Amino acid sequence: MEVSKHLRAFFSSRIVFRKSLWSHRCLQCRKSTCASEQRYSATSQKDSRGSLSLHSKLAAGPTLQDFIRSSASEDAHTVEHEEVTEHPPYISEQEEATLEKGKRVYFETYGCQMNVNDTEIAWSILHRNGYVRVLTCQEADVILLVTCSIREKAEQTIWNRLKHLTAMKHERCKSEAPLVIGILGCMAERLKHEILEKEKLVDIIAGPDAYRDLPRLLNLRKYDQQAVNVLLSLDETYADIMPVQVNSETKSAFVSIMRGCDNMCSYCVVPFTRGRERSRPLLSILEEVRMLSDKGIKQVTLLGQNVNSYRDVSEVQYNTGEPSNLSRGFSTVYKSKVGGLRFADLLDRVSRVDPEMRIRFTSPHPKDFPDEVLQLIQERHNICKQIHLPAQSGSSSVLQAMRRGYTREAYLDLVENIRKTIPGVSLSSDFITGFCGETEDDHQQTLSLLQSVKYNTGFLFAYSMRKVSKKSSKDLCGRSDGNIRVIFPAMEISTHSSSSSFAEIKPGDYILVKITDTSYQSLRGIPLRHTSLKDSAV
To answer: Per the confidence metrics, is the pTM higher than 0.90?
Structure first.
């Protein structure tokens, strides 16, 4: 019928983006022209005998008003249909099913606590983009290794793991989505060329500042394109991304407050794998800490490569032009920074969020412990009286070669000031032995520093395996204010010093423990009663 031909010509000239809406339009317009088709059926029969001219045919067809009326009735339903979009018209249902099947992701995390936090950030980004996290690599379509590059042994562990995963990739059933292997973090940044070009073991490489780009990189692999982003950023802090906690049962959490490092110690790869220092806005940190408090978290550790050099310059009013205060006798390899909210300001605000939430921080640099930070730690009962104070060496000549910015004497003066300001403080430290050019005399000076300071805990670059105190299934463990692991039996204890009621010990509780035994890495004791941070500080 000629009228139907005109309708098809009209519809073919329209651009339609939704398949469901297209069907709706066709139905409405066909209904509106049904009367016209019946009215002119006789005319069409005459047309088949060639008795009407082309002009008469057009005049007998539907007018513009017919289509306007049809469009008006359809537009009333447009909003209703807007959200009922299924898959895009250019992706078939079968292809969409395959797409979803390729979104099962598995993470393996190596190295420091910053990498654990990075895993939570990367997972938060992928979760928003429709990925599902699985518990084993056998279930996964995407395996992402969050890597460490601080030591050669850590990198060798990753190389060995990659070879195992590559073999698993080749054995994968062809009916399943292809297995995608990715390297994230510091090793991706440092060894990008060897990983991608020389070894050919991975499909995706993303540096510490490229996690937002993960969805795009994963899509590129579907088309066999190179998927690499190792660009370092001067401002990326992931401040707007709330990390997804891996273990929802835990009562402690880590909050990243800054990224990168400007210290440029001669032995350290961090400035080259993590980039320059930049700090999260203070308000975004407070928002995350409040959220954790609402979830019942009892301990928050503030994270950063140089955590106590925090400096928020996100707001104009913070840029006062005042220089940063350093520990007495310490210097920096870079020009003194001015303005911004400092670490003392952050500690002050974070400690006020929840008086019954413990606050810790790691990893600091000795140069960034001005008096105001030490006094605040002493004043607030929920800021743990434990400070990690990395010395690295006890020899001034080795410290100079390491570009640490202080001498042995300045370090010992800082230790004295800390213990004077915070009585009973727990100190821990890092040491590197066998550094380039180190002599036997330098090594003896490091040993004498250890004996002089009497740290509670020390972390050494070269070490032998030590006896680890193990707990039975009937034991519980916690951390003291000095961050020492304490093992004690699970039992009911008094709810208060003057109370006759008893209650079981649950995760997140604060308790008093009488220490009865010690080992190299932990303490053993007997729980006495429940308490609070405020009461135990008295």
So the answer is: no
